[in-house]
Amino acid sequence: MSTFSLKMDIANNHHFTGQQSPLFSVEEAQKAHAFHAKIAGYQATPLQSLDHLAAHFGISKILVKDESYRFDLNAFKMLGGAYAVARLLCEEYQLDINEFNFETLKKDIKQPMTFATATDGNHGRGIAWAANQLGQHAVVYMPKGAAAERVENIRALGAECIVTDLNYDDAVRLAIKTAAENGWKVVQDTAWEDYEQIPTWIMQGYTTLGVEAVEQMQAMNVKPTHLFLQAGVGAMAGGVLGYFTNVYGANNLHSAILEPELADCIYRSGISADGHMVNVDGDMATIMVGLACGEPNPLGWPVLRDCATQFISCQDSVAALGMRVLANPLKNDPKVISGESGAVGVGLLAAIYHHPQRAELMAKLGLNKDSVVLVINTEGDTDPVHYQEVLWEGKHPTTA
Ligand SMILES: Cc1ncc(COP(=O)(O)O)c(C=O)c1O
User: Fold this and answer.
1) 255, β-bridge pairs
2) Which architecture, in CATH terms, is 8-75+199-393?
3) C-beta of 122 in contact with ligand 1 (< 6 A)
4) Which of 30, 240, 343, 361 could make a disulfide contact with 323, Cβ separation 3.0–4.6 Å?
């Protein structure tokens, strides 16, 4: 076995209070889950247990919630977009979300609607999917350099997809401006002044994956000791951690928020003296494209600030290592196809295992033979060309 030191900056959260958020209560999460469960083709995504890998790394369990199986969308993101669109329509047509069903509503929509959003890929695909289900229109803005496959997947759902020459955060501003000029509804996964309801629904929609994972762990008779959540703006991490702390209590869970070092706005907010949100600017040219967001979601940040145990900023090779490890299972462990933004959690465990200071890093993360680590594979191979370059051609290697 070789040792190598990949860059992982680990900061303890000095702002931790353990304060639970009512926005992500068990009741709210169950409402979102009940909505998703009514969509045709719904199935809980698998919770894979990588027992041989866990034994290899010296821990008890590695559980991977595999969102590459989420409908046929290869990522978790539709959970948020579809739920927000549904809640929006319920408000518009005075319907009860508990009664709501895409099929029946489709017939009731009197005025054609256009939903607008900006995306690194997965969120836009979710919005395009929801609009398509409802026979409505979506306009999706993407940052510069968007992968052809991601653009095609959005267009295949009938949406207009515009690749800009902007970074993610500026593409969001363009979506807002154009929507205002055209009377479109913005369905964005981050919040700003006077725009909080839709992103709250989006975050609540993400809790469905948490509800499923908790049920699946109960069926396996295990409780997580660790939860690793990757963050772009931190909406998914905020929603899922918010729900988990309502279920288990923040003090009973070692949670780590993982980001690429080129877009580590949550990490930087975490190490700020007073816990204020810190933005990262520029191109944010990371392979973890779904995490290439420089401005924290103001609704997600308070949950992460109050309840996360640690913030971790990682170099790209950590994610690439995770992609390779998940694609090459030990013995009869299941194979997991994990894209760049999905693989960073397992990548972190593997990078610690190979690190010359393995024992110190394990101790820092509170990892030992009893640890049950839950990670979320938030996407499959959403950029198959790059996926193959990493796996076959060794792009983003572990050694210089
Ligand atoms: C695959 C994937 N994982 C994680 C995230 C992070 O989600 P958030 O921006 O809510 O932090 C995204 C965001 O687009 C994503 O596409």
Assistant:
1) 227
2) 3-Layer(aba) Sandwich (3.40)
3) yes
4) 343
